[in-house]
Design goal:
The protein is α/β, with parallel strands linked by helices. It has two helices and five strands. It has one domain: Trna Endonuclease, Chain: A, domain 1, CATH 3.40.1350. Strands 1-2-3-4-5 form a five-stranded mixed β-sheet. The protein starts with 12 loop residues before the first helix and ends in an 8-residue tail after the last helix.
Length: 110
Amino acid sequence: MTTLQDFTALKDDILKSRVVENVVAEELIRRHPGEIFYSRSNEEIDFVTTDSAWEVKYQNRIVREDVKQLLSFPGRRFVLSKHTLDTEQDYPILPVEFFLLIMDRLKIDQ
């Protein structure tokens, strides 16, 4: 099974992060046609639906400062990460691969 980590052609971490963000965008657009936006009030939020906000942080370590823009969002908030799985926060942090595998089984966006 090929994973996102296997993209050896993408040696640049910034490029990898952009590719992963685009993969997430495609999945959200598929599930919410015409309903995906981004928010740029004070700080950018990657993807916003009518009741959920999604921030992609494809990095090894995520700290609260990385996702502070989500804290003021009134709906459900999710962070998609490189490796981190943490459901104890005010917002679940899910590895992107996990999100892509279970998205069809979850009712988190409906």
